[in-house]
Amino acid sequence: MDRFDALQAFARVVEAGSFTKAAATLHLSKTTVTQLVQQLEARLRVKLLHRTTRKVSVTKEGAEYYARVVRVLADLEDADAEVTSVLGAARGRLRVDVPSPFARLVLMPALPAFHRRYPDIQLDIGASDRVADVIADNIDCVLRGGEVTVPSLIARRVGELQLAVYASSDYVRRAGRPAVPQDLEAPGHQVVGFLRSSSGKVAPMVLYRRAARSEESIEVRGRCVVSTDDGNAYLAAGLAGLGALWLPCYMAAPHVARGELVPVLPDWQVPPMPMYLAYPPTRSVSPKLRSFASWIDELMAGLASA
Fold this sequence. Notes:
Elements: H1 3-16, H2 19-26, H3 30-44, E1 49-51, E2 56-58, H4 60-87, E3 92-98, H5 100-117, E4 121-127, E5 141-145, E6 154-168, H6 169-175, E7 191-194, E8 205-210, E9 215-220, E10 224-228, H7 231-239, E11 245-248, H8 249-257, E12 261-263, E13 270-279, H9 287-305
Parallel strand pairs: 3-4, 3-5, 7-10
Antiparallel strand pairs: 1-2, 5-13, 6-11, 6-12, 6-13, 8-9
Helix pairs in contact: 1-2, 1-3, 1-4, 2-3, 5-9
């Protein structure tokens, strides 16, 4: 038994809650992962995992052992990272998950510059607005808009996105231009709903404006004829005239320039959306992850000043 492989297999099974998922992230067969964990238990003479046909859970002894194993594996990764840093450039495969509109409109167009700077880093990019299971899917880091609510992740704020309310020019001609947020809840108006992946419910549109001595805030829900959990589909629905919508300005800008979208409610503001880079605490901040994070900082700074 290779003790390192066995420790890594055990840790991944605990994190993924499944031998099948752990095997997939380790690029091993389920049989191999099962044998490694069984050999580890035999050597320790301790049952580390409870196994049923539906799920895998950790025993009390297994949980205590896992806490130590995580530290050992992290120390080994830190040692590798220090050697790599001394030897030179960051290298290796980095698995990243980002929102699909951000990937299409910001990240992908900027990648040639990234690869000129870091030619030895291979990026595997998952693009989705759904919340990825970072540990189970063996993702190194995620870039997400909004507060990171997963307590098992370390999150670092990398910037924020400016948002505003828009509608298609066809929608404005047909329904009229709303003068105040309450107009969007009146008959004849509608909004495109964005579904929160965590709850499956439509996120309300929050607007505010500042006066000389006060600040007024209002939450708009409006009537939805279509809702979606994908940013690209959300934008497409707005362009099709299916309702007003609130968008990051970078998404709306090219369509505003072509006259396809028009800003509405200019006297009201949408709170900026914070952007976070998050990664599991069991993964050390390797040179490749550190390099990517630094580049994302620059990318977000450039987006904010555009």
